[in-house]
Amino acid sequence: MTAPPTTTPDPRGLARYEVPEPLRTDVRVLGEHLGRVLREAGGEDLYDDVERLRELSIRAHDGREPEAFAEAEALVAGLSLQRAEQVARAFTCYFHLVNVAEENHRIRILQRRESQAAPGQLTADDTLPAALSTLASEVGEEEARRRLRTLEFRPVLTAHPTEARRPAVARSIRRIAELVAERDRLQIGGTSLAENDRRLLFEIDILWRTSPLRADKPTVLDEVQTVLGVFNTTLVDVLTTVYRRLDDWLLGDEAGTTPPVVAPFGRLGTWIGGDRDGNPNVTARVTREAAALASHAVLTALEASARRVAERLTLEAAITPPSAALATLWRQQRGLSEQLADATAGEAPGEVHRRVLLVVAGRIAATRARDADLGYAGPQELVADLLVIQRSLVDAGAPRVAFGALQKLLWQVQTFGFHLAELEVRQHSQVHAAALADIAEHGVDGPLAERTVEVLDTFRALGAVQKRHGVEAARRYIVSFTQSAEHLAAVYELAEHAFTGASERPVIDAIPLFETFADLEASVDILEAALEHPAVQRRLAENGRRVEVMLGYSDSSKDVGPLAATLALDAAQARIADWARRHDIELTLFHGRGGALGRGGGPANRAVLAQPPGSVDGRFKLTEQGEVIFARYGDPVIASRHIEQVAAATLLQGAPSVERRNAEATVRFADLAERLDAVSRRRFHELVRADGFPQWFAEVTPLEELGLLPIGSRPARRGLSVSSLDDLRAIPWVFSWSQARINLAGWYGLGSALEAVGDEALLQEAYRDWPLMTTFVDNVEMSLAKTDERIAEGYLALGDRDDLAGLVMGELRLTREWVVRMTGSDELLSRRRILGRAVALRSPYVDALSLLQLRALRGLRTGDAPEQADGLRHLLLLTVNGVSAGLQNTG
């Protein structure tokens, strides 16, 4: 496969995006290497088929040549199933390689900006220093520093099945990424570059030969291990890197010689192993094992970090004398284990600070091994020991040593504790109601249903996790479909049933999850009623009147459409924030956002800045799921950038100017919002409530087939047939539409709403001055840019419902037209050159895979060749991987 030409007019339409030469070179090299691998592995015939489809797809996409599209369809139809699979794998490999090239270029740009910036220079308006400076200019330096000290960023990692790559493929991609990055450091023409080419060909060959599909669905603990890999690769160090960068800016020349100004503000959460809503594979045993795996990982990392720091503390006691407190600590350590103390003393004679820290490392290892005599009781004990070492170094005149690598270790302990990430439990409110009814009928010791026993065991698992790893390891309990205050009270009542005595019960914060439109509307009434419950009152008294409320983006969008859901979520946040102020409650809103636009996806930092006044207040919590985890946290440079952007937005969102702009826009465009809401919702319901829509949806998208993909431990549906959408999970709803190249979940209803308003000047004014609408429309624009009308029509034709297909295509064209007019653009993404370039680079190749998928789906729907059903299904599943890689934010 070849790359965009460098001098001739670019048939992909890339010329207008001015592709940077380093990126163009990376794509060309990777494409040529893939072409060579295809020739070697499958012969010239395979390479020719891939190239022919590639060329036709390009001509059809950008040249708008109808005959080219027809030729591409004919070529795909004429391929044998075996050859079709090979072609699909070739295009999928290409997407993985393009993604590597683009990620590498992004890292290249970030590193260049960093290296060219003068010390203390503010290089962008979305950095923490810039946010703090802006905030200080509005509220004063002292108040800005106070807000910085209370800043919280809480990403919660979840395992929703939208990461279609199997782990072996992900590891292969990472190795290729390392080799591409290495090329920037090599001399052109040197033997090292030739060696790099050889290794790249080796890795691309492995990628090509590795099956994209797992043989079996991953277990919940497999998913835990996958995310722990991200922790070990990047997160263990990235958060402290962000802290250090900000501290360096704040302290200037004193950085690294005085106590840090920055307090750790990142806290990880996880649902993997705790989210049992609709996932029977998450049991009490799994929850305990997930917590144990996370604790083992963080204690291993902390021990390794402590030993690395100790290696540097080769400070002779005569020059850097220990403090009295350090000498006391050493005696205490000898009292705990003479054997360990003697071993470290022999390793570090005359280096008291080093040997004390080595004993600390040994005690961390003992904690991991559950050696109660030697291990730490909790992270605060470890912090206390590290502070003794740090103060001793300061007293001895070695502040640089005290606040260097040792400070990083302290930050790591303060950020991750001994549990790494707080394990949050989630369960459906109706499951709790059924369990309580069962207990009421039979008694807690009676013949209870298996599901009731599991509910009670979940609370016992929480108690066991807290006892072993600390209260912060697992205290949040999220109630899906919270529709009354009784649904929150049920959590505390069930906890009472699970334990014989109050002293044995775990600490629990019951968190409502408002998901549907009706639940969002009723949210404040439910919260108000919950305040009357004695268990809620007791918990508020214990935790300093802190309340967390989770908002579901997915189901609300599936309920009333993306635009109405966006407006409803914004209004609900404003009402909940006002409720919290009235009751003197410290509120944290937890945003259940997905990667796809139909699930609240898009740039998180821009979403933060568009939130209603008072709804953030320096605390931002969101779910990070599926492919988003690896896209945002897989590389340390990109992860650092993402964390800083979101943290900066969280800090800046409370600036008076930002709050004023959002508040004024809400009032100013209230009438417009009401009109947009009514029309978009009506248009959405006209489609999804039409007779036979659920069955038609299952026919025209690969909904059923996606359930066969072994990409997650969780079922796609809560045990229903496709006769109803009520309980269909939002993930397959969004994923299916994206695979069909329609992306309906992200935009449907907007075009009709904009046309009903009809005032182009007003709409452009709203796009310019209303942050909520700016963010929403920009996300829709990206979603629309990834659609393709000709391919969409092919999918819709599978359902034999011209009326529904007409509604979808009409709304798609109308939305395209009005988004371009509203943004004042010439065409979609014409103002967003980097994103436009990325979409343009991929679209023709996604088209090729979509044609292969459509062929497979058409064969399965017609059933004309039943003997080929298994082969067609396998081809379809292969293309799902490729389309996901090409579109990226699909689920």
Structure commentary:
This protein is mostly helical. Among the domains are: 15-124 and 167-224, no CATH class; 666-844, no CATH class. It is 65% helix and 5% strand. It is built from 38 helices and nine strands. The protein has a nine-stranded parallel beta sheet with strand order 3-2-1-9-8-7-6-5-4. Helix 18 (485-498) links the parallel strand 5 (476-480) and strand 6 (509-514). Helix 3 runs parallel beside helix 38, helix 10 packs across helix 12 (352-368) and helix 18 (485-498) crosses helix 20. It is globular and about 85 Å long. Residues 3-15, 596-600 and 716-721 have low confidence and may be disordered.
Task: Describe, in short, the structure shown.
With 891 residues, the chain is mostly helical.
- CA distance, first residue to last residue: 28 Å
Give the strand line-up of the largest sheet: 3-2-1-9-8-7-6-5-4
Major sheet = 9 strands, parallel
Task: Give me the oligomer status.
Answer: single chain
Shape summary: globular
Could you name the key traits of this structure?
38 helices, 5% strand, mainly alpha, 9-stranded parallel sheet, globular, 891 residues, 9 strands
Task: Describe the secondary-structure layout.
Elements: H1 21-62, H2 66-78, H3 81-116, H4 128-139, H5 141-149, E1 152-158, H6 167-183, H7 191-209, H8 220-251, E2 269-270, H9 284-312, H10 324-336, H11 338-347, H12 352-368, H13 379-395, H14 399-402, H15 405-416, E3 422-423, E4 425-428, H16 429-442, H17 450-469, E5 476-480, H18 485-498, E6 509-514, H19 517-521, H20 523-530, H21 534-543, E7 546-552, H22 553-560, H23 562-582, E8 586-592, H24 604-609, E9 619-625, H25 627-633, H26 636-652, H27 656-668, H28 670-688, H29 693-700, H30 703-706, H31 730-739, H32 750-757, H33 760-769, H34 771-785, H35 789-796, H36 802-823, H37 833-862, H38 869-887
Parallel strand pairs: 1-2, 1-9, 2-3, 4-5, 5-6, 6-7, 7-8, 8-9
Helix pairs in contact: 1-2, 1-3, 1-7, 1-37, 2-37, 3-6, 3-37, 3-38, 4-5, 4-26, 6-7, 8-9, 8-15, 8-26, 9-12, 9-15, 9-17, 10-11, 10-12, 10-13, 11-12, 12-13, 13-15, 16-17, 16-18, 17-18, 18-20, 20-23, 22-23, 28-32, 32-36, 33-34, 34-36, 35-36, 37-38
